[in-house]
Design goal:
single chain, 80 residues, mainly alpha
């Protein structure tokens, strides 16, 4: 397993820990993990493609259940 995928797994584990206490932070963790996984993926690896699809689905479902989740990038610009 690549270094990037180890980082992704760590971030996703932290997101799981935060699900109940800080769901918005948990979803931002998952989005960040998804971004890392997409950048570091092996395009020929079918398992990674399935993993990414499942993670995207989970993120979208969680976003829908929470309602509007502010975009971290947009928040940074609003604060300035």
């Amino acid at each position: 397993m690549s270094k990037v995928m180890h980082q992704v797994e760590y971030i996703l584990a932290r997101a799981d820990q935060l699900d109940k206490s800080c769901p918005v932070v948990a979803i931002h963790c998952r989005i960040y993990a998804l971004e890392l996984a997409i950048k570091g993926r092996d395009k020929n690896n079918r398992e990674q493609a399935v993993f990414l699809t499942e993670l995207m689905t989970k993120v979208e479902q969680q976003k829908a259940s929470l309602g509007h989740v502010p975009d971290a990038q947009a928040q940074r610009h609003d604060d300035q």
